Amino acid sequence: xxxxxxxxxxxxxxxxxxxxxxxxxxxxxxxxxxxxxxxxxxxxxxxxxxxxxxxxxxxxxxxxxxxxxxxxxxxxxxxxxxxxxxxxxxxxxxxxxxxxxxxxxxxxxxxxxxxxxxxxxxxxxxxxxxxxxxxxxxxxxxxxxxxxxxxxxxxxxxxxxxxxxxxxxxxxxxxxxxxxxxxxxxxxxxxxxxxxxxxxxxxxxxxxxxxxxxxxxxxxxxxxxxxxxxxxxxxxxxxxxxxxxxxxxxxxxxxxxxxxxxxxxxxxxxxxxxxxxxxxxxxxxxxxxxxxxxxxxxxxxxxxxxxxxxxxxxxxxxxxxxxxxxxxxxxxxxxxxxxxxxxxxxxxxxxxxxxxxxxxxxxxxxxxxxxxxxxxxxxxxxxxxxxxxxxxxxxxxx
Length: 398
Prior knowledge:
The structure is a single chain. This protein has helices at residues 3-8, 11-19, 37-45, 64-70, 85-98, 101-122, 130-135, 137-147, 151-169, 174-200, 206-214, 223-257, 259-267, 272-282, 314-318, 352-369; strands spanning 24-26, 31-34, 50-51, 127-129, 288-293, 297-299, 302-304, 309-313, 374-375, 395-397. The strands form three sheets. Strands 1-2-8-5-3 form a five-stranded mixed sheet, sandwiched between helices. A three-stranded antiparallel sheet has the order 4-10-9. The chain is built from 16 helices and ten strands. α9 (151-169) packs across α12 (223-257), α12 (223-257) crosses α13 (259-267) and α12 (223-257) runs parallel beside α16. The radius of gyration is 21 Å and the shape is globular. By secondary structure, the chain is of the alpha+beta class.
């Protein structure tokens, strides 16, 4: 199978893997696919046996010209996503504090105001391309607000983070790689400037949390400290908006694909939380991550050797029939079941609450202001990536 075709619709491969005995090796992933819910849970619960060191293997390696640009920045340092053990705990601490329930609650007035403004900007038009007009800008504004950016810097910073994804997961020409690398380096220098500024002028934001935790004390930041802070802020910036963007796209798509689901939600707004959980189960916003076996182990009857690579599919776990009746149907009345769509264990997504709150506020505004919402086009193409699961475009009308 063409890797791009697999990325756009991996669910048939997931289903076949769940039916098979043991694990299935998927050439498109270059990894053993962990597809069943209990196997996914087991791997995520045992980081000492299944390392995150290569959690995010690139699909494409930058060429020499792009690398010559990237060395001008602050990359190449371990981020929380690829750390294990004490290193992971240390890098995760500022995220846990910065994305705590209290911090998210304090940000909700900002989230609501931005959501109202964005929807209000097109509500009178009768139609919209949802991803560009709302699903991308809202999470960008929100993560920029929490990180502590000047609003004028937010969208450029988010674009720089997206270019990092483009460089590693999209086939680009040499010139396109160089352009992406330049934008990434510009982002890294911007983040470095913010980090150094917060050293002398701390504020109530995620940059300050990162500086305080990763570089204790009051001395000027060392180069190594600056690199670590920048790498982890860049990781946060990308993860902090992609997850919410994906979920904002798929929840609206799947509610409107079956008109009865949307109409039921409008009739019973108390189902909003259930709709969000069902959207996350049905289309995990991040399909999964890789893990590397640290020592010989047997998983689901398959013998694995040290350095074997697994792809742990959160999305496939959500479609496991052993955990869900009618798993391939989108149903917001489904009984609540803790899903694995935001991971599990030490690497569970620290920003899942923030993402869900953005979707909750969005749905409450839509069912109040645009109950006649419908798909303007039914031919929806999903983005060819496993980093996030979302429509490339989503045309709506009312």
